[in-house]
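Moderator note: this is an archived Q&A kept for reference. The question asked for a predicted structure of one protein chain; the sequence and the answer are reproduced below.
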Amino acid sequence: MYKVLHISELSTYTKRVLKAPVIRWLLVGIVLGTSSISPWTWWLAIVGLVLFILIIRQTQDLKFVLGGSLLVGIVQAFVVYTWFWSLYPLDWIGMSRPAGAGIIIGVWFLSSLALGIGRVFFGWYVHRVRQNNRALYLGVPFAWVMSELLGSLIFSLYILGPGVGITLEYSVSYIGYVLAEHGLLIRLAELGGVFILSATVAATAVYFYRLLTRTKPAIGKIVAIAALVFVTSFIPFTNPYQIDDYVVAALGTDYEAYVRLAPEEQRVRQDNLIQAVADTLSQGVDYVILPEDARLSSSFDTPEAVFNFLTSFTDKDVVLVDPAMEWLDDGTKVVVALVYDTKTNSVEKIYKELLTPGGEYLSYFNGGILRLLGFSEALDNFNRMYGYKPWPNKTPLPEGVPEILFCFEGQSSVALWQKARRSGVPFVAHVVSHSWFKDSKILRHELDQMLRVNSLFARTSVYQAANKSHSMRY
């Protein structure tokens, strides 16, 4: 028989559950992760870090601190990565729906584990200095940023693959990105990108912790400062490096990945794209930027035919950015942007250097595990359809040719900063396709925060041409 709990009994039971160590660590991870998935939840990053520090300081045994910190990191990344489920189903590579769900769960967990390990360092540091308040207050911002960089390093080991090396660039789940929603504090990004914003969140959290844990908590001061932080988030902010010297058309499209379409569907898709570009050219633009995997050039026999097409619809000099794929002479398959400049009648090739793990290549780890589990046929299908390798860009770009930030490169903490310094114009073209992710709102929001912060850090403007997402200017 079931026992009906009275309100008083339910309240007591709830308090016991919330006092359970595992539940407390879980809740901290959920709060931190939730701060990243909506423009209205940014403030939870500060709340989550205050709770994180409180629980660490209340836990005497180091092994529980390390284990709890790992759990916080995993759960935080779990929430940030909920958009993984927009990949389902995976039947397009010959995988059954149950198997596809299992693969997504596995990759979701392993990715979160790799990123979450970094939080162990933060937990260790806060526990280590628990008797030294000065080291706590001064060191927490540094320790938090170091924990994020450590997570990036371990994640890069997890996604290591053909031509893909170890790096600190992957910045998914960096807590500083939430300050893209704060009209005042986002301005600090110009001084140090997401790193200084993460340190700012951590410094704010440790200050609130200090006020909260005084012998007599300064509740009035906490409320006043919290209100000030919240209200100033509504201060309007626009990237001051946006320019209006050029007429730039960043096209938005809504098509499936080229390799998933039947030949007739590919032809229809390309005909529609040609018409869209023709209509855009007739409006007198200076630049036309197409989304990733547009492959407009594949509809023409030669580069000369592309130039003839461009000049037949406009009297102005125009630059076309056409993302495509290319087979190199040695058989390497690469992602490339073909940049046609009618002024110089030249074509520049800009290659993608930071590939999408699981989207354009398979990591050694994941590929090995999947083969052991008997998914060799699905892996062969994937490698036949994708199987790209990164390729370096060695030639400096000429004047008038924009640098290209390819899809996944937008998740790098420094790629945009580097590319802005190589660009032949004062903006960078961001070409992206979310055909895999069905325009996930959470993914779109997280990438939007990254571009807003990183464009300010790079001191440049970004034009985003997107497939199954939003085309816009940052």
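Archived answer notes: The CA atoms of residues 410 and 451 lie 7 Å apart.
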